[in-house]
Amino acid sequence: MDVTLGLLPDSPAGDDGGGVPSGGSTTVKSILTKEDNNKNNMVMCSEVSSSYPVGDQNLGDLELGLGLSIGGGGGGGLKGKVVAGGGGWSQYARILTAKDFKQNSCSSSSCSVSIPNSATDSVSPTNGNSVVGWPPVSKAHRMPSLANENKSPTGNRISVTEQTKSKNRTVVINDYSNEKARISDKKYRSVKVNMDGSLIGRKVDLNAHTSYEMLAQTLEEMFFRRRSSTEAAKSSRLLDGTSEFVLTYEDKDGDCMLVGDVPWQMFLSSVKRLRIMKNSESNELAPRFQESHERRRTDVV
Amino acid sequence: MTYSFPEEVLEHVFSFLTSQNDRNAASLVCRTWYEMERWCRKRIFVGNCYAVNPRVLIRRFPEVKAVELKGKPHFADFNLVPEGWGGFVYPWIVEFARVYPWLEEIRLKRMVVTDECLEIVSKAFRNFKVLILSSCEGFSTDGLAAVAANCRNLRVLDLRECEVEELSGHWLSHFPDSFTSLESLNIACLSLEVSFSALERLVSRSPNLKTLRLNRTVPLEKISKLLQRAPQLADFGTGAYSAEIRPDVYSSLQEAFSGCKKLKSLSGFWDVVPAYLPAVFSVCSQLTYLNLSYATTQSPDLIKVISQCHNLQRLVVLDYIEDMGLDTVAVTCKDLRELVVFPSDPFVADANVLLTEEGLVSVSQGCSKLQSVLYFCRQMSNSALISISKNRPNLTCFRLCILEPRAPDYLTFEPLDVGFGSIVENCKELTRLSMSGLLTDRVFEYIGKHAKKLDMLSVAFAGDSDLGLHHVLSGCESLRKLEIRDCPFGDKALLANASKLLTMRSLWMSSCFVSFGACKLLGQKMPGLNVEVIDERENLNLLPENAPVEKVYIYRTVSGQRLDMPDFVRIMGKDKNGVYNLSLCDKGL
């Protein structure tokens, strides 16, 4: 008999093992807490619900069990009772808040769900913010005129197992275009980004961006999750001073500078890490840039 | 009741079993057959280099002549796998060098190959013949020089879409004058110039040369010289196909091509100058493979070439071909098996070319042998997909990429569920499917119900809930590779179908809703799986267990934990104490 991992829904009648034929194995404590359910349901299509009993089931009732099942197959302990939605998603509070899950009423013609965790709702590459790895065209088939889209996240990592001497090398990109590549020679250049008040740092690939605007939009999307098609058209709030945060960077001399004052290429060559700083802290910035920053703020009416 | 069947007879019988699956099946019959088979297996294929380790392989198969290994997951092609993830071939090469001195062939895909690896290969295997590196990286032209200098019996050197650190073009000159065994050379992915005279001399002294794919730097004017020296070529890739328009250059080119009576495959064509295209007309009717995917020229020029390719079986082209050009394909290329249309300008939202779903429908109608499609376009409809499925129920590979994520049927604005559903329902032999556009859980229901022979499925920006994933994992009996990005699939379907994962090679999920806790649980409960969480964020320790991971890559393995992981890869649940193997993230701060 196969031992499979199955999701065992608690049945109200209380028979042990739920839908598992020969239950009685150890059950593992549920990783889904019994939070109050469901103000925000995941989207369900009405056409689908006919085959499966879907409803506002409390996911907190689901237990993870090691169930014995007869025969193979991936169904495991799940005997036709799949909970397709329901509440309890709100416990994913830290990264995705309950507000991130839009409540959609499902029409028969279209169902769509907003996925806050993914890059964009719509690819609007003309404003410079594309989804990583989309469209799925490998490097060899990216055409010459699109040198700026060569987002290969490779770097200078060195294999651990090999006994070769470590080589810190830059790799030549196949430069199909006749012009020189506008981006630095390294294919993937990630810098750390920290935001004041947030413990989770991120990394962003600078070579995947060609302008401050693009970079700021990526960061806004990473940290503020304010990405929507209407916002796309506006210029970045981080850059124009209307946000309560300001985008700064540490350059190779260790100074803290405001992002946006020097040409993009110059910025790329000197930036070491990024910091999204609260406006109230911005007096730490190098003085000569403070003025332009102040000027910018007063320009905004 | 015992019987004795002479070993020599068994061995002879086994020599007719070429497929690895057949040999695996034979080895399970009885101990005698197992022993017999393992001693005479010459060719090994490892689809995931971390599913097994070199020692296990060597212990079982002592007499191997050819090895094929694959490393990184497919989505590495689209920059979804961070650099340093793994796929290092070095430990394998070291073991092979120790145990298989008579190894002849190495084929690697998406692996990290260093110069040291190439040096070992060039010196450890005296009869080394075939080196094919596909989408590999980590080596430089120094490594190539070592191969050129030392592999006396080399027949094939094929660098397919590799990333090579190009220190100089001089490496080619390291092939000694005594070296005459070359049959196939593919350097199309290199960008530095190689010495043309060295190349010409090499071609001249290689009477068995059948495949020659040059890189972009070889000028058009010099190609005729090479073709004259190698009229026996079957597969040729030009360099940059542009030059000043000169009648003498044109006529010698045309003459050179017409001398290649055996030419069946043509590729290259960077920077194409249309005026030079007619130089290849004399070979068009011989061609079975034509790759114009670097030819940035408009439809009429492409049509002039393609309309003469009556025997074409595989066509790779840019969307410059447009619907009109595909109509020509449908009428001309009656033997077509495979069509690939790449996007010329994928990052522009508005269509820059007149290529729509119509082109594909047209080809599906006209080309009765069409089996494999990779098609990038900007609009699609359910009715077109239904037509395609009804025209071509013999499709085995259908990969459709609508450039805008979640684009609906452009006529009805509905999801494309019904269209793709029709594909899986009518194309009963479908083994590979990639979907795009607006898709709900319903399409997965269709797939789970009908796609019984589906081996590989790629999904992006699709589905509504775990139900979608559950349909696929529970319904697709033959599924071995599943790769998912940006879909609202989470823990439930994954955990409910955990045992299915043992029947598959691998599952990739990125930007979905799979939590740390679920990964840990899966890793703990399923010792036959490596559950790799790939996450580059800092301070992961501070995230709760129900927070979603960035990427998870799950594969079956008999090799256990791998030891070459970078800090952003954690194999979950394998620690004895049940605490998952989360490395300390604050060391970088």
UniProtKB/TrEMBL annotation, chain A:
- Pfam families under this entry? AUX_IAA
The UniProt entry lists the main location of this chain as nucleus
- Its domain of life? Eukaryota
The protein's name is: Auxin-responsive protein
| Residues covered by the PB1 domain | 188-279
Q: Where is the composition biased (Low complexity)?
A: 1-14
Assembly, per entry: Homodimers and heterodimers.
Coiled-coil positions are none
- Described function: Aux/IAA proteins are short-lived transcriptional factors that function as repressors of early auxin response genes at low auxin concentrations.
Sorted alphabetically, the keyword list is:
Auxin signaling pathway, Nucleus, Repressor, Transcription, Transcription regulation
Q: Where in the cell is it found?
A: Nucleus
Automatic annotation (TrEMBL), chain B:
Q: Which UniProt keywords apply?
A: Auxin signaling pathway, Developmental protein, Nucleus, Ubl conjugation pathway
GO BP term, pick one: auxin-activated signaling pathway
Can you provide one Gene Ontology molecular function annotated for this UniProt record? auxin binding
- What protein is this chain from? Putative F-box domain, Leucine-rich repeat domain, L domain-like protein
Instruction: List, alphabetically, the CDD domains matched.
Output: F-box_AtTIR1-like
What pathway is this protein a component of?
Answer: Protein modification; protein ubiquitination
Coarse class of the primary localization is nucleus
Give the coiled coil ranges. Answer: none
The F-box domain sits at 5-46
Q: Where in the cell is it found?
A: Nucleus
- Which cellular component terms (GO) are annotated to the entry? nucleus; SCF ubiquitin ligase complex
InterPro entries found in the cross-reference section = COI1_F-box, F-box_dom, Leu-rich_rpt_Cys-con_subtyp, LRR_dom_sf, Transp_inhibit
The regions listed as transmembrane in this protein's record are none
* Organism per entry: Helianthus annuus
